[in-house]
Design a protein that fits this description.
Blueprint: H1 3-15, E1 18-20, E2 23-25, E3 28-31, E4 34-37, H2 41-52, E5 57-60, E6 77-78, H3 82-85, H4 94-104, H5 111-119, H6 121-130, E7 150-151, H7 159-172, E8 177-178, E9 182-188, E10 195-201, E11 207-211, E12 214-217, H8 226-232, H9 251-258, E13 263-264, E14 269-275, E15 287-289, H10 303-311, E16 318-322, H11 332-337, E17 342-344, H12 347-353, H13 358-374, E18 394-406, E19 409-411, E20 417-419, E21 425-431, E22 436-437, H14 449-467
The protein binds adenosine-5'-diphosphate.
């Protein structure tokens, strides 16, 4: 143990006494090379990769279960992929992916980070395959993805599949994951500003200390923190729901800011425009209809554009309609049973079940199917006209905008090191995933989130692991 770590332990013991049942107790201390905060997709990718680079790793997770928002993901992974796309006649490259990602975020992302993201996408896909995941032979254009490079998994387990393989990988490397353990602060050396560990609280409220040579923050975003999100975008107050798990409260941003970390893009907050209504994620197989029975948007548009469009509709809601032919995102029959979506054998029956005007909905669907057959959407300019929606049974879900992803967060460099407010690296501190900013700009492309947590989780894990040696 270095002198510095001994000094830090001594300082920490003095700083963090807790009174338990009237007795002065010191926090329990554990040591590792790398401490990862958060057992979602970014954290597990970082932990496994750090271990593969020779580090002893501990993961802290504040919830009673692992997975974070990653486990709730639609789970399609974007990558240029000649093996699949050539067969489908789709031209693509990491450069095109990069240009589209920058443009979709209104060029507010850091191009250097986007380059790392897109150039390492295929490698990330192969990494999951090496861990035992399988992807479909064909790519499609996922909801909000803007280009046909989205890879669904087989079987389609969405985010659960990623967490399952990553958890198995962590287990096989004997990486301990401490559940119900919430990071409350970073331990930093006053002399050179190095981060040496994490202060935490366990389920019983006991203070814990995890000392390490490097720390990776992978605590996800702040969509579930109403106060924090409405501070940055007042539209997203308590009246707007969220698709996120309750632990998405921005903790990592807060504890890093306490030691001088910089943030970027905090007011770029994304909604799923039709949350609760998505029976399929395939843009080419869905049509949006408002409660008057009218179509009102290009269903393949950017998520922010669609959110604005839905907010302009009566009741700020819309029906998402698909049919038997589309690839289903979820177990639709279970959703029908739970009363979350509607199923019908004809458009007339569907209209009645959705309390829509039968003649209006019939006309809207006929018009949409004609445009698909013509391969030209004269009404809203939709480019992805994959299939008519004409094969019963039909499915419809009533969707509304809910806060989904916070694009802003900790400012990092291409090595996933956290930068301070003066633009300098905070030694020993890394961050990856939704807790970071600068990767998506104003608007995240659908399918780039799983990519972000994979690529930067692995960059952070590798560098944190190597630095700890
Ligand atoms: P990402 O997609 O960036 O990996 P996720 O939401 O999937 O983000 O995962 C983040 C994880 O971090 C969640 O499981 C969340 O419960 C956990 N987390 C958030 N704050 C803390 C904290 N203070 N201490 C420990 N874990 C945390």
């Amino acid at each position: 143990m270095t002198k510095r770590i001994i000094a830090v332990i001594a300082a920490a013991i003095m700083l963090l006494p807790v009174v338990s049942a009237g007795v002065l107790a010191t926090p329990r201390i554990e040591m590792a090379d790398v401490v990862v905060i958060g057992a979602g997709g970014a954290g597990l990718n970082a932990a496994v990769t750090a271990a593969d680079n020779g580090a002893k790793v501990i993961v802290l997770e504040k919830m009673p279960v692992i997975g974070g928002n990653t486990i709730l993901l639609g789970g399609f992974y974007n990558s240029a992929d000649p093996e699949r796309q050539d067969k489908q006649g789709i031209k693509d490259s990491p450069e095109l992916h990069m240009q589209q990602t920058l443009a979709a975020g209104d060029n507010r992302a850091n191009p250097a980070l986007v380059k790392v993201l897109c150039e390492n996408a295929l490698d990330g896909l192969h990494w999951y395959e090496s861990l035992g995941m399988k992807f479909a032979d064909q790519v499609f254009q996922g909801y909000g993805a803007l280009y046909p490079r989205s890879h669904p998994t087989v079987p389609n387990e969405q985010g659960r599949g990623y967490i399952r393989v990553l958890n198995n990988a962590a287990k096989s490397r004997n990486i301990p994951i401490y559940l119900n353990t919430r990071a409350t602060g970073l331990i930093r050396d006053g002399k050179d500003g190095r981060v040496y560990g994490v202060a935490a609280v366990d389920k019983s409220g006991n203070e814990r200390m995890f000392l390490s040579k490097t720390v990776v923050i992978a605590t996800g975003g702040f969509s579930a923190n109403v106060e924090m999100r409405s501070k940055y975008d007042p539209r997203f107050d308590a009246s707007v729901g969220t698709t996120n798990h309750p632990g998405a409260t921005g903790d990592g941003i807060i504890i890093a800011q306490e030691i001088g970390a910089d943030v970027v893009g905090m007011d770029y907050i994304q909604c799923i425009a039709v949350a609760g209504g998505l029976t399929t994620l395939d843009v080419g197989a869905m049509v949006y209809v408002n409660t008057n029975g009218d179509r009102f948007a290009d269903e393949g548009a950017r998520r922010d554009v669609l959110t604005e469009a839905v907010l302009r509709q009566p009741g700020k809601k819309c029906w998402v309609i698909t049919d038997e032919m589309s690839q289903k995102a979820y177990d639709v029959d279970a959703m029908v049973k739970r009363g979350e979506i509607v199923k019908a054998d004809s458009i007339e029956e569907l209209a009645k079940k959705c309390s829509l005007d039968v003649a209006k909905l019939t006309a809207t669907m006929d018009r949409y199917n004609k445009l698909v057959e013509k391969k030209e959407d004269e009404d809203f300019g939709k480019k992805v006209l994959g299939q008519t929606i004409s094969h019963p049974p039909f499915y419809a879900g009533l969707g509304e905008p809910r806060v989904h992803h916070t694009m802003g967060g900790l400012r990092i460099n291409t090595d996933a090191q956290v930068l301070d407010i003066h633009g300098k690296v905070i030694p020993g501190l890394y961050a990856a995933g939704e807790v970071t900013g600068g990767i998506h700009g104003t608007n995240r492309i659908g399918g780039n989130a799983i990519l972000d947590i994979t690529v930067f989780g692995r960059v952070a894990g590798k560098n944190a692991g190597l630095e700890s040696k």
